[in-house]
Fold each of these.
Amino acid sequence: MQQPEETFDSFITDLKLKTQSCDFGELKDSMIGDQIVYGIYDKSTRERLLRDTKLTLEEAERLCHTSELALQHAKTFNDVSATVVTDSFKVAVVKRMMGWAVPQKTGKYVLHSCKWYGGRHQPHQCPAFGKMCLKCNGKNYFAKQCFSKAKSKTVRMVDETELIETFFVGLVSCEDVYSNHHQKQDGKQDSVSDDMWTQGRFKAFGGPRQDGL
């Protein structure tokens, strides 16, 4: 009987050595062929040998060698595939632990994070491609992913600072006019000062308001 880890060459060589001490005569090849069918370890190979009604020793050896080689190739392929899958799983676990974005599979496709679209999409199918940003008129990205956000915030901060400075300058001017208004004793001068104070007040607050204040 062939052992699980025994090669077919070792098995057939052992059979031929044993038959040399037996006087089988012309039945020698037939007896070796029968022992191959009976003692071969792989069941699928045995079934193939049994299906051949005109099996010769030479044909039996050829079939057994072919089957053994095919099994070795299949085992090697399975081992490599298992290693690749295991390594890919390990890499994905490490990426998740480090906070990296791991592509998600949907059916046969892999979804990737896109900085232009702001979400995930299939390869070469970015919804933002060819579109125009509504904020800066840039191309190939949406407004929510606009690259001019930081610049816009800086400009707005500068505008607000200038507005505050203008307000305080106007306010100081109003206080000066108001002070002069109370220091004047002449009635005509008081009227002029009232007009100046009113105009300064309007300028400080950006013009007259609807509520009359």
Amino acid sequence: MGEGISGDAGLAAAPYDQWVLLSPAGGSPRPPARYKHAAQVVQDKLYVVGGSRNGRSLSDVQVFDFRTSTWSALNPARESNQLNHENNATGGSFPALAGHSLVKWKNYLVVVAGNTRSSSSSNKVSVWLIDVQANSWSAVDTYGKVPTARGGQSVSLLGSRLLMFGGEDNKRRLLNDLHILDLETMMWEELKSEKGGPAPRYDHSAAVYTDQYLLIFGGSSHSTCFNDLYLLDLQTLEWSQPDAQGAHITPRSGHAGAMIDENWYIVGGGDNANGSTDTIVMNASKFVWSVVTSVSARDPLACEGLTLCSTTVDGEKVLIAFGGYNGKYSNEIFVLKPKARNLVQPRLLQSPAAAAAAASVTAAYAVITATDEKTRDIVATDDFDIKRAQPAKNGKLASRLAEVRDENSKLKDKLDMANLSYSELAKELKSVQDQLAAEGSRCQKLESQIAAARKRLESAGSLENELDVLRQQISQVEQTIATTQRRKSGGVWKWVAGSAEVDKQLPNRKWKRRMCYSFEAACLFPVTGCFLKILLMVDLAKMPPEIILFIFLGGGTW
């Protein structure tokens, strides 16, 4: 980094492609150090609006005059018709903001979005105008589809319109939506672009090139920093990722960028661990990255949340960097005067239609380069004819471009139909697979049932044998029961009289029981006892002598 300079003379004498500290004049107070502010150069003055320091958002407007190298605080008054306007402001003071965007338009500085800790903050994007000539500010009513409030977005000026991309809303949700604000009507509109755009992100950088393309570089999610590059064709709203060449660019977020001609300069940023020390530049017509210069790891420029603007001094473009944070808040101004870089032929437009147009332009360059001096003399002589023929050539190119775009549209339709057919086939395949799985499960159950039936059939023979044995046992039991019933069917007389069969089966013990019964009956009923005695005598021949004696002795007592 070069030595400090001061004033316009110092800017004009600054070395090329080297950052130099711009020191204020002696005794000039410096503004509070900050980051996540916004800045723009208007009429040789650097305007710095808001920012954050120690977790507190700032509401001041600081101005650095390059002609006098002095800082001063601008205290714009709120327009009288705005005193009751509700738009994130208290009384007449400008609202405290961080992570907002600042765009120069006519005599105004347009402040868009940003994070505010105001209790009256809206859930929609707010817009303010600072009139640098009248030293006043006002909150602007916007209409249409107003985007949700956010911070860390990118805002780029395209004529009288603002292009806003991405950011982080008040609930820390990352965004990748694209909105456009017409500054003449203050009407918001959401642009629905084709698929393939950048992932949701914040703290990225953006630039408009040739009023036709929007470039998006880097940024961060909550866990990852990016180094990708996206290109949006503002006519077709098609996103593409150019195949960038040249130096390897590390991921970064919180960096700042500025476009000078076709060169997009990027400074600062970090990857959540270290600050980026390289100042890089990309030729937007060729997509070639290169490193302009580098600083040390602890340099104030190796930081996040800084701003980068450009201005013209003595006919030369100069880059102005201010503020940032790398463990320490900065309030320094650094300037870099980039050297002129060779123009190269365009390599934009990634769609098929764009490729056809680019091929035509490349062919035209080749024809002009290959033409010798004699041919150029003839061309100079017939300049009028060439000018007259040029519209016809442009008409052919436009016609060819329209044909290619039409063909591209048809191919997209076919691709959509193919995707739809593929989706339906995939659903049908899934249904068939589910049916096959169900049938397979049912087959397994049937196989297990068949195996169990086979086992039961194998054991059927042994079951038959067991059944025969059971039948024999049942027959024997039935015979025994029948015999028992026949024995019982004789009644009391048979029991009293007895029989030879009974005599064989019943021992003398049973006769003794009979005699006891007879004795008891004789005691209770004498007549019946005599009768029983007579009956018993019918079979006295078969009785033992002692029993007969007992009967008669007992009968004597009757």
